[in-house]
Amino acid sequence: MPVAGRLAALALGALFVLGAAGVQAQGPGRAAIASPHPEATAAAQQILEQGGNAFDAAIAVSAALAVVEPYGSGLGGGGFFLLREADSPARYAFLDARERAPGKATEAMYLKDGKVQPGLSINGPLAAAIPGLPAALADLAAHYGKLPLKNTLAPAIRLANQGFAVDRMYRDRATMRLSALRDDAESARLFLTQGEVPALGANIRQPELAITLERLANQGRDGFYTGPTAQAMVQGVQAAGGIWSLEDLANYRTAKREPLRYQLADQRELISAPPPSAGGVALAQSLAMLQRLPWQSAEPVQRSHYVVEVLRRAYRDRGLLGDPDYVANPVPQLLARTYLSRLADGIDAYQATPSSSLPPAPAWREGDHTTHFAVIDADGNAVAATLSVNLPFGAAFSAPGTGVVLNNEMDDFAADPRGSNNYGLAGSQANAVAAGKRPLSSMSPSFIESPTQFAAFGTPGGSRIPSMVLLSMLGFLEGKPVASWPAVPRYHHQYLPDVVEHEPGAFTAEQQRDLQARGYQLKDLRRTYGNQQVLYWDKSRHTLEAASDPRGVGRAEVLSPR
What's the pLDDT at 19? Predict the structure, then answer.
C-alpha cells in the first residue's frame, strides 16, 4: 500500500465521532483531546472527569508531556497557548510563554573572531534561555482554570515518581542526541541506561522532577522561579559556564497577546499565533494567496505547484518579524489584501519561481522537535498549544537536583545579524540576540472557526510547522475526513534553500518528473516528520472528532457526555 494509504488507514484508529444526543447549543456537549502521548491524553481525561475545563486539561497535558517527552518539551522550555473561551461570541487569547534571553546575553555571545560558533548555542547551559512553561501553567490556573494546580499537576507528579515506559519515539530522539546526553553527567543519569539509549519498555523514573512539580503545585510560579528550585538551577547553570541569574528567573513573565486573526472565505476566520511566532503570518498569507488560485480544482501536481509557490513567498517575509516587545512588526503590511494579491498574481501557473529572483530575505535555523496538543471541553472552551525545548532534549543539560532539562532556544536567534552566511541576512536584526528578548519561532497553534464549524490545528516541526499545518487546513477546507488531516503526506518549501523537501511517497515518480520539469529541485527526506494533533467540531451536525498523527504514538479521545 502507498505511504498515503498506510497513513490514512492508521489514522482511522485514532478517530472518534460524537453523535447528536445530548449536545448543548453553546458547546459540543462533551470533551475531546488529541495529544502526542497516551499518558498525556489520560492525564487530561482525569482532570476533565474531575470537573476541570479545557484550560485545566491543558495544564495536565503540558505537565505530563514534561515527564514523558523530555525530548520535546518540559519545565525547562516554553511554548505558545492559543485559547478559546466559550462565550457568545467566542473570545480568543494568546499566551506567549516563549523563553527569554538571560540578562547577560549579548548580540555577539556566539561569535569568536567574527565567526559564529554554533556549538555554543546548541549544547550546554549557554544555549539555554529562561524557561516559560511553568509560568504559563500557573497563569492558566489563575486566570482560566477551575481547579488548583495541586489537582492539575497531580497526574504528572505520579508519572514522574512511578515512571513511564520508553517507546520508539523516545529511543529515536535519544539516539539523535546520544553524544550530547553522554556529555552531561546529570542528563546521562536521568535519560540513559549506563550511557546507552534505554531499551523499549524500560522504566524512566524522575523523582527530582516530581519534587520540582510539587513545588510548582504548592506555591505556583514562585515554586519554580524563586526558592530552592531557582537556586539549584542557577547554581548548576553557572557552575557549567552559563549566564543565568536569580533575577532572570524572578523577572520572567508570560505575555498575553492578541491572536492573529484573518478573515477567510465562507465566513471562516483563521485565529493563529502572532509574533514572536512567524507561523500565523505565514499561514494567513498562504491561505489568502491560495484563495486567488484554483487550487481545489487542480490536479495533484498543479495543486502542489500552487502550494509551494505561496509557501515560497510567505517564508520570504519571515525575516521581517521578531519579538514585538523589542521590534516593530509590519504585520498589517504583510497581510494587506493588495500586497497578497500582488504576490499571488506573480505566480506563474506552470513554472517554479526561482527564489533568487525574489527580493532577498534572511535564512534561519530552528529546531524541529517540539510537541503539540489540542483539547476542547463540553462547553466549547478550547486550547491548541505548541511547546518546545528546541532540539531533542534541548541543550542536553539538566540542572542537578531538579530533574529539569534545559532548552537550547538561544539557537533560534540570528546568531550573526550582520550576515556572514551564504544567503545574506537583510532584516535579521529583528531576531538578533538581546537581553530579555524572545526568539522568533514557527510554532503555529491555530483555529479556524465559522458559525457552523470549529477546527484546531498544530504540530511540532521547526521551520516546517507552517507548511504542515497548511496542508492539514487544506484538507479541512475541502471537507476531507478528519483522520486524513494529520495523515496527509507532507512536502515543504521555505524560500531558502530553494528546494522542495518531501516525505517518502509524497509524490509518485511521474509527479516528481513533472515537478522537476517545472523547475523544482526535489529532496526526499527519507523519513516522515511532524506529529499533528487536530480537533473538529461540526456545530451544525452536532459532531465532535479528534485525530492524532499516525507518525507518532499519540492518542485522540472523545469523552462520554457529561
Answer: 36
Q: Do residues 122 and 83 touch, judged by C-beta distance below 8 A? A: no
User: Which residues in 2-90 belong to E strands, given as ranges?
Assistant: 16-17, 32-35, 78-85
203 is in an annotated binding site: no
Model pLDDT for residues 160-210, shown as the tens digit of each residue = 999 999 999 999 999 999 999 999 999 999 999 999 999 999 999 999 999
Rg (CA), the chain: 22
Cβ–Cβ contacts within 10 Å for residue 241, how many? Answer: 11
- How far, CA to CA in Å, does 123 sit from each of 397, 411, 512, 539? 7, 10, 38, 47
Catalytic, 41? Answer: no
Question: Of all helices (H) and strands (E), which one includes residue 68?
Answer: helix 54-68
pLDDT in tens, 10-25: 333 344 333 333 333 4
Find out whether 412 is annotated in a ligand binding site.
Answer: yes
Q: What is the pTM (predicted TM-score) of this model?
A: 0.93
- Establish whether 421 is an annotated binding residue: no
Read off the amino acid at residue 104. K
The CATH number assigned to the domain holding 158 equals: 3.60.20.40
- Read off the pLDDT of residues 383-416 as tens digits, 9 standing for 90 and up: 999 999 999 999 999 999 999 999 999 988 876 6
462 is in an annotated binding site: yes
Q: What is the DSSP letter of 474?
A: H
Of 54-63, 109-118, 456-465, the range with the lowest mean pLDDT is 109-118
- Rounded to an integer, what distance in angstroms lies between the CA atom of residue 440 and that of residue 442? 7
Asked whether residue 25 is domain-assigned, the answer is no
Report yes or no: 323 and 440 within 8 Å, Cβ to Cβ: yes
At 374, give phi and psi (nearest 5°).
-145, 145
Q: Is residue 19 part of a domain?
A: no
For residue range 214-268, list pLDDT tens digits in order: 999 999 999 999 999 999 999 999 999 999 999 999 999 999 999 999 999 999 9
Neighbour count for residue 20 (Cβ, 10 Å): 9
Q: Which of left, alpha, beta for 292 (phi over 0: left; psi -120 to 50: alpha)?
A: alpha
DSSP 477-523: HTT--TTHHHHS--EE--SSS--EEE-TTSS-HHHHHHHHHTTPPEE
Catalytic-labelled residue, pool 370, 386, 402, 528:
370
The helix/strand/coil state of 204 is strand
Q: What is the DSSP track for 143-203?
A: HT-SS-HHHHTHHHHHHHHH-EE--HHHHHHHHHTHHHHHHSHHHHHHH-BTTBPPPTT-E
The three cell numbers locating residue 362: 534572511
Question: Is 390 flagged in the annotation as binding?
Answer: yes
Q: What's the pLDDT at 368?
A: 59
Which residue segment(s) compose the domain that 44 sits in? 31-262+370-410+435-559
* Tally of domains within the chain: 1
Answer whether 36's CB lies under 8 Å from 372's CB. Answer: yes
Note if the bond before 89 is cis, omega within 30 degrees: yes
pLDDT, averaged across the chain:
92
Give whole-number Cα distances, 268 to 94, 295, 399, 459, in Å: 19, 18, 46, 21
Residue 140 located in a structural domain: yes
Residue 3: inside a domain: no
